[in-house]
Specification:
mainly alpha; 3 helices; rod-shaped
Length: about 120
């Protein structure tokens, strides 16, 4: 194999590795966005319940029970969805970090760039 062929193979390997790193970092950013969304979805029911508790002197609970029960069920669903999104995002972020660490162990130049 000629020296030019070896450098082309090395350059292609580096390009492939860096493309793989870019893909993993893009996926990690997507997971961080999903986590941010999960936190927002989780926080919304808490703020709604805060307002209901703060204004509870303005209404009779028994008179508005037909509104409170569906609202509480919806809030429970939103809290569950928020927990699911955050948990899934954290698991994926850890997975992408492990894959990036594996790539850094294989490529010294990459390890220098991503410390």
């Amino acid at each position: 194999m000629a020296a030019a062929d070896k450098s082309e193979v090395t350059a292609a390997l580096d390009t492939g590795t860096f493309n793989e790193v870019q893909l993993l970092l893009a996926e990690k950013r997507t997971s961080l966005s999903a986590m941010r969304t999960g936190i927002a979805v989780f926080a919304f029911p808490l703020s709604v319940l805060s307002v209901l508790i703060a204004t509870s002197k303005s209404y009779e609970v028994h008179a508005v029970m037909h509104w409170l029960v569906p609202l509480l069920l919806l809030n429970i669903g939103l809290v569950a969805l928020g927990i699911y999104l955050v948990t899934r995002a954290v698991m994926r972020i850890h997975r992408y970090d492990r894959l990036l660490d594996e790539l850094k162990r294989k490529n010294k130049r990459l390890a220098e760039l991503l410390y």
